[in-house]
Design goal:
With about 375 residues, this protein is an alpha/beta fold. It is built from 14 helices and 13 strands. About 40% of the residues are buried.
């Protein structure tokens, strides 16, 4: 079967794109507004046309033209995927109903309505369904109907698909010609719950499993070389096709900062430090060796290495997001608030904003399986 083709909107650094390609799609066009993630996209996806710039006001035909292609060349597009920015209604954001970024889901649906793919996949924050009394989401569901698509939606836990973190995402599947695919069944579960419903499910991937084979480097150090063989199935996945480690550079800290980090216990947070000694950033989590990380954010100072008194390297954060080691992030490693306001999108922001690739692979596989079934039915009709 010829690879189904997809278009990625709000592509970021390509976590969703990578997962969909793992599932069997070929992403022909990726659109992203920020120039720095575009550098990462071009580096890691040489066979994808990257269109840099805002999607607002850009028609589907213009998007394809900017990619150097034509509607005729693409034919019947199989999938349009995207995760419109969610800061306007994120529980981690300001929850501002007038935030212009709230309208980007409408822009996503506009492009879907213009290009009429067989399916669409939209990813967003789990709170979208209830924020502002659920009115925003109800409005988007009406728009889905208006452009002639049927959809189903569900909030999924990424840990259930082999991602070592407690992240929930709203996933919307849309179909042009019939019922959307079923959501993928979990492959992993909390070890405490596995025997209750399906003993065949694998236990959650822990932070220790995800990070255990990476070279231990102290603050201020960098390395590109492995020092041990992979020990777990996840580590073998992460290191496949990778001879060197990218983005494994540890930030340099002041002695006072390291001393404060040293007060955070194994697997704990800064809230475990006695109140009289809390004088730094609150809520910092030390990655737990034997369980899941909290949701990875765009701010690396929200986390600590499992055993060292430093924040994670970009590679360690990327591992928790399930990026393979061959994937290289470009641009400045981190940025302060001033740079963020100026529109810079650092490596830490690219990683934190990503859809975990293994999660995206599971979602993409649901569409691939449906497309294969449709092709078999079509073949039988022709032979008949």
């Amino acid at each position: 079967m010829k690879k189904p083709i997809s278009i990625e909107l709000f592509a970021g650094s390509g976590g969703s794109l990578l997962g969909l390609e793992m599932a069997g799609f070929h992403t022909v066009i990726a659109n992203e507004i920020h120039p720095h993630p575009c550098l990462t996209l071009k580096k890691n996806f040489p066979n994808t046309r990257v269109v840099e710039g805002s999607i607002v006001g850009l028609s589907g035909k213009e998007l394809i033209r900017k990619a150097g292609l034509t509607i005729k060349q693409l034919g019947d597009i199989d999938l349009i995927a995207g995760g419109p920015p969610c800061q306007g209604f994120s529980t981690a954001g300001l929850k501002n109903p007038t935030d212009a970024r709230n309208n980007l889901i409408g822009e996503f649906l506009r492009i879907v309505g213009e290009l009429r793919p067989k399916y669409f996949l939209m990813e967003n924050v789990s709170g979208l369904t209830t924020m502002y009394g659920g009115e925003l989401f109800k409005d988007y569901l009406k728009k889905v109907e208006q452009i002639g698509y049927k959809c189903t939606y569900e909030v999924l836990k990424v840990a259930n698909y082999g991602v070592p973190q407690m992240r929930k995402r709203l996933i919307v599947f849309g179909s042009r010609d019939g019922i959307p695919p079923d959501f993928p069944k979990p492959t992993h579960a909390n070890p405490k719950d596995r025997d209750l419903f399906n003993s065949q499910l694998k236990p959650y991937i822990t932070c220790g499993e995800a990070l255990g084979d990476l070279p231990v480097i102290d603050q201020g150090q960098t390395t590109t070389e492995y020092t041990m063989e992979p020990q777990t199935e996840f580590q073998k996945y992460a290191r496949k096709d990778s001879k060197h480690i990218y983005n494994h550079q540890a930030s340099k800290h002041r002695e006072a900062t390291m001393a404060y980090y040293g007060l955070v216990p194994a697997g704990g947070t800064s809230l475990d430090i006695p109140k009289e000694k809390r004088n730094g950033k609150q809520g910092v989590q030390r990655f737990p060796l034997n369980s899941l990380a909290r949701t990875i954010t765009t701010e690396p100072t929200d986390f600590l290495h499992p055993t060292l008194n430093r924040i994670p390297t970009m590679r360690e954060l990327a591992r928790i997001q399930t990026y393979p080691d061959w994937f290289e992030f470009l641009g400045q490693r981190t940025t302060g608030n001033k740079m963020r306001r100026l529109g810079y999108c650092s490596q830490s922001q690219q990683i934190g904003n990503s859809v975990p690739p293994l999660f995206a692979k599971a979602l993409g596989s649901a569409f691939i399986n449906t497309l294969l079934k449709q092709k078999k039915k079509s073949t039988k009709r022709i032979k008949g």
